[in-house]
Design a protein that fits this description.
alpha+beta, Jelly Rolls, five-stranded antiparallel beta sheet, signal, DUF3999 domain-containing protein
Length: 420
Amino acid sequence: MKLITHSLKLLLLVVSAVMTKTADAQQFTWQTHVAKPQQEGFNRILLSPQVTGRLQADFSDIRLYNNAGQEVPYLLRTEQPVQYKRLFKEYDILSYTHQKGCCSELLISNPDKHKLNNISLLISNADVRKDVKLSGSDNRQDWYVLKDKHTLYAINNNQSTAEVKLLDFPLSDYRYFRLQLNDSASAPLNILQAGYYDTYTEAGKYTSIPVQNNTRKDSASVKSTYITLRFAQPVYPDRLEFSIVSPQLYHRNGYVLLGKEQVMRRRRSKRKRQQNQQRSVPFVLSSNAPAIVELPRLAIEELTIVIQNADNRPLEFDEIKPLQLNRYLVADLSRDQDYTLKFGNSKAEAPEYELQYFQDSIPADLPILQTAELKQIRKAEKQKDNTTTIIIWAAIAVVIAGLTYMTIRLLKEMDTKKQV
């Protein structure tokens, strides 16, 4: 019986150790203060390279707290390298005339003779159907048909007092367009605007990553240039931008090695070679294109740029900038509160906030708040393998097995005594 009691105590000690290890997973290594919000409501907190470099790759180990130490829900947003947007461009309406009981005529100007194939009309809500005709002219005297008949159906927008109606037609570059509407059965429509939607691209926003030091070596024997950039802590560069001074015309092949090249041993040569290939990014620098190299998102503390010069003189650089795409925490903040970010824990799991279900309801263009200098609040644990965890669970299994064996043995002894 005493042995069972001792075994139970041992089991409790082991379980306690496991619980302590689990609780330890909620501890963070770093913190930084967030600039005070100037606007009530949702704001964006820009995560600097110093912050992102100390996070897990999926950003699961970062939390936002207010004055009272309460956790504040957030959304993680990342800039896209290229964003496609639609912009409404208005036409110049020269006139909009009405002839009672007959028709209305809308005259639109296209002074730069842009090639167009649609007109979008912003029309006040109206429960009516109209037949329209479109023609084009370069002198307002001679008109040529573009669309002989088109029907505008009832304009009824439940979210707004007006709605956009699209009129498609063959690609044209007339200086003037005339839209004729049949008003014989009803009063004229209230056309507020005429224009078209133009799709354009917008580059994502980046933050420069500070370089701690760099070295350069021009090797004549292998006809290559080697440039190594080293960082103060792990970083996640998304892009390299080169500012090349000379020569004026160039075309060079090369590659970027992310991190230190792995030494290959016989047993692991294939695996190491695959890792090196994944961390090697080929590129071409040409005077006919922007000197930009896109990089895969990997945590590194240094990178090496190798440029193959062939028989040409080495390139001269004014600057080489490593950049990371801007990443933000979007949160509902109060102007009378101070906020702190805590992060840096390889054991932490991603939080689950209901805010994720309302992403489309939160505007994209929000005020941006910066973070202060980082402060270490706990010593970073050395990366360990799973040996300790395996030993703990093995100990639990042994204790449970021992308890089971002792219980069965005790029951047999009790049964034997009863029979005697």
